[in-house]
Amino acid sequence: MGRGKLRLLLIISLFILSLAACGPGATHETQVNGVPIPTVSDIADGKSFTEGGSLPEYTFRTLWKQALTEAQEWHQDAYLVVANGCDIDKKGIPAYWFLVFLSPSDELYRLDLRIDPIGEVIEQEIWTEGSEEELRDYRIAYGDTPIPAKVVDSDVVVQNSISALSAQFKAEKIREPGAILSWDDESEELVWSYIFFYKLTAEYCGVDINPQTGKIKKVWRGSDTESI
Question: Residue 11's pLDDT is what?
Fold first, then answer.
């Protein structure tokens, strides 16, 4: 199984985990693993798109800010560790973002949150099920380092990915496109990944992108990777 596909499957697995609870705020920390916990004001605004008089839809960074505001009601020191945009379009706008927040003041729990393109939180759950060991294993598997404030937006991720894929893939055969921002468990580097199912060869493929510069790092098919 390829590293990109494994990350996709790990993120998708979060969708089937659900148990609501509530947790009080506690000590406010400013960094985790040497990385500052971003505040809402640290994150640059994203872009907005409006069509036919409908409500504006937003790219990732604006929705991250909105979701973080919600997460801070759970814990003031909440921070993002995983962002998964499902069924993302060419403008970098998905059907919704699935976001996972942690808190250094509540190490046994996490907040899962879904937010739609117009900025409405459509679901949020505090995951508390399992033993302390299982919940700590979750942090080891997915990482507990904050996603830093300065990352390229989802529109850049999609546009750069599509450009990189054009020579190797037929656009009409791409299905289920998604964008994932997470820490790679092998390299321990932050990575934006554009991931999709390629109907022509029936496999998951994708592009890994430097989240600070937007430059292409790798294009991969299944278990193979190709550096650009």
Answer: 52
**Per-residue confidence band for 105, with pLDDT thresholds at 50, 70 and 90:** confident
Residue 14 lies in a domain: no
Give the list of residues 6+ apart from residue 16 with CB closer than 8 angstroms, or none: none
Q: What is the Cα–Cα distance from 164 to 158, expressed in whole angstroms? A: 10
Q: 125 pLDDT exceeds 50?
A: yes
Confidence (pTM) = 0.83
* CATH code (residue 182): 3.10.450
Give 153-164 pLDDT, tens digit per residue. Answer: 999 999 999 999
Number of domains in the chain: 1
Residue 18 lies in a domain: no
Question: Which H or E run contains 9?
Answer: helix 3-13
Which domain covers residue 191, as residue numbers? 154-227
Residue 21 lies in a domain: no
Strand partners, 112: 100, 125
